[in-house]
Amino acid sequence: MIPRIHKRGSATVGLIRYLYGPGTHEEHIDPHLVAAFDPLMPDPGRDPQATYGQLQRLLDQPVNALPAGRRPDKHVWHLSVRASPEDPVLPDDAWAAIARRVVAATGIAPEGDDAACRWAAVRHADDHIHIIATLVRDDGRRPRLHNEARRAQAEARLIETDYGLRRVTPGDGTAAKRPTSAERHKAERRGRQRTPREELREAVRRSVAGAGSEEEFFDRLAGAGLLVRRRVAPSGDTLGYTVALPGDRNAKGQPVFYSGSKLAPDLSLPRIRERWDGNPDRPAQQPTLPPVTGPAFARRRVTSAAWQALFVVDHGENGVVAAQIAATGEVLDTLAQTSAAHTRHELQAAAAAFERASRSHVRAARGHDHALRRAARDLVQSGPALGQGEDGAATAMAIDMLIFLVSAAAHWHAGKQHAQQAEAAHRAAEHLRMAYRTAAERPLAALHQRGVRMAPSRQHRHAALVRKALPELADRIIAEPGWHALVATLDEVQAAGHNPTTLLTEAAARRELGTAAHMSDVLVWRLRRSADLPVDPRNLQVPPTYGKRPVAAPEPAPRSEIMPLNGSPRRR
């Protein structure tokens, strides 16, 4: 059950007409009163003699009793309470009781207060009611409405329990601002699936992901086709910004601008600037790394950075973990922007879902997220992956590690009682699993065919190797559909001059494997990365001979990547 407080207004009769009217698309059915401050309140929906004016005068009587100079300009309070689609249809008396509980909880009409504000609850659909109130009490004073939205949400959680309704995940006030009813109706009239506020939030989020400076951020906003205004101080410093869609205009024909803070709490300019503390382009603060040579190499960087971040999320301090989680959102945004069409949809869905998980009341300690932010920047600078080499395999390798990282973020949020963030991270992980299956299909199929064609004696030798290195998991791994892809990878590891038993043991020790849906897939990507094998087996250039020394990796693995970790179980 979701209570929502709407903008305050000045015309009581205007809202009454809307509540009793047909709605914008004839969706209001049988509008009628279910509860009010006075049980004898006239109901224009059921009494043909009652009028909207009568109802308005009764509600506004305390306002009109005040001297004109003391009357509040915005005295109309409006709240809707909506049940979930899967909830049963509640009778009028249940909605009446719910309305009384909500006005009491918010401070509009505390229980037992005879001088409280006047209010009425109108039902014009099966699944919700609207409550209208005037913000002057019968004694002429104003109601105490501090944090009424949070109190309404808390009461809704109790109502859900009492009526056996679907339990809505409680929030913590860090979610992005939702579109208003007027914004939604405007989008519907124009045939748009999303409101300008939602489109702008996504565009700004994508523009800041991987950006290396303030000027680059504003250039990318303009490049995305947005109208951008900067608020500039007399000194010439930029204090803030607003953005608008070119086609979104008000009644006067002017563009409708939104500030960054009205889109999401972390999109205000001061909060965005925090990301550039320790800018990844400043060599004095960052270790020297080889230049990114293409999309596939950028995705290898993502895999490395995600592995380092995974260790931090498991063992780091809260502020540092929050920074890693926020930077993970940037990586997802840039990966979605630069990946090929067959994975892009699910990656975009994962990034959109994880946006909610990237914020909480734990303030991110920026400056500790260099590796992930640099990886996001590498993705942007390397450009689209389509037609640029190992997209499918390199993307699959990156997604494979990001699934673990996003799942670790969900686990951390759950431990902090961040219910909405944990749920969002779990949704993002599901979309990543879908994207992984698409990205990994072709490279794993090529490895599978190579493993199937391998001589039985060599297959048996690799099976014995797995039984020796992973005795408790070997039977499950060998029985998986991806077993032959792992066999082919072990063969390449050995052909490249590595000790497959050692690498296999290290790969399994890096993180718990038992709850992974496909352990063989996980091991394939870890082994290929550890042995610096081409992520796409079709690019393999290592001859099938043994004893050859491995070629030096273009990017040395950080020390944390070769240390066995004993993280808590994660389901992949």
UniProtKB/TrEMBL annotation:
InterPro entries reported in the protein's UniProt record: Endonuclease_MobA/VirD2
Region named Disordered: 166-206, 535-572
Comp. bias regions, Basic and acidic residues: 195-205
Residue ranges of domain MobA/VirD2-like nuclease in the record: 72-165
Pfam family for this entry, one: Relaxase
Name of the protein this chain belongs to: Mobilization protein
Organism the protein comes from: Streptomyces globisporus C-1027
Lineage: Bacteria, Bacillati, Actinomycetota, Actinomycetes, Kitasatosporales
